[in-house]
């Protein structure tokens, strides 16, 4: 297999060299991409092509655009349910919701491919009841579970060492963030998450992996990265067939964690 792959690579290089050598255009490049993804030709009636849908952006980038579904704007917790399927029991005050041994919360609505904005803040008090500084996974541990299955880790990773694929912005247990751009405890932070769901065939086989891009505080930390499967503790993840859309979960991991300004845009299928 290795020899075959090397031969194919060599052929591809020779194809590029021969292609450029036979043309007078010195800047030409052969595009080597899978069949079916070639660029479409420039249409003759290009001026009459369908226009992009017009939406109104939020007054600030962190605020929902006109086509977003608002999941939490500061007071109304009705888009969410508790672990028992009943009313979410989290505390709501001063424009944020707070999870603190009150159970994880789940959106009533199910989502698949999406763009999700969420802001969160970890506690300023980083001492335990005995006055010792907490460390690692003990500080502000929570998580944004897309489809209730694929966790983006929320943690106070400011000057707080932990295993890399368990730090803030990690695809938990699978891939660490590209950088640690965590703010100090108590400060509001943001995730902007673009998620593409996995696809399964009729036999339950995975034919497209789940994929995510994440900006943490405006900084790219995951770049179109694929999940090995749903998030599991001390396992690297595995897939089981599931619905095209499932609720989003915000995890109550037993630490105090605050969330605010949560909105989502459903994305068209690729
Ligand atoms: Mg977590």
- Which consecutive residue ranges, at least 5 long each, have pLDDT under 50? 5-24
Q: What are the bound molecules?
A: magnesium ion
Output the number of helix runs: 1
Extended strand count = 17
Structural class by helix and strand composition:
mainly beta
Please state the average pLDDT score: 90
Q: Radius of gyration over alpha carbons?
A: 23 Å
- How many discrete domains? 2
CATH topology category name of the largest domain: Jelly Rolls
Distance between the termini: 31 Å
CATH class of the largest domain: Mainly Beta
> Which series of helices and strands comes N to C?
HEEEEEEEEEEEEEEEEE
Helix content: under 10%
CATH-assigned homologous superfamily of the largest domain: Exo-inulinase, domain 1
What shape does the CA trace take? globular
* Biggest sheet overview: 8 strands, antiparallel
CATH architect. name of the largest domain: Sandwich
Task: Provide an overview of this structure.
The chain is mostly beta strands. It has two domains: 2-48, no CATH class; 69-266, Exo-inulinase, domain 1 (Jelly Rolls, Sandwich), CATH 2.60.120.560. The chain is built from one helix and 17 strands. The chain has one helix at 2-21; strands at 69-72, 80-82, 91-93, 96-99, 105-111, 114-121, 142-146, 150-154, 189-196, 199-200, 206-208, 211-216, 219-226, 230-232, 235-238, 246-250, 257-266. The strands form four sheets. Strands 1, 3, 4, 6, 9, 12, 13 and 17 form an eight-stranded antiparallel β-sheet that branches. It has a five-stranded antiparallel β-sheet with strand order 2-5-16-7-8, with no helix packed on it. It has a two-stranded antiparallel ribbon with strand order 10-11. The chain is globular and about 70 Å long. The structure holds magnesium ion (MG). Residues 141-143, 151, 153, 172, 251, 253 line the site of magnesium ion.
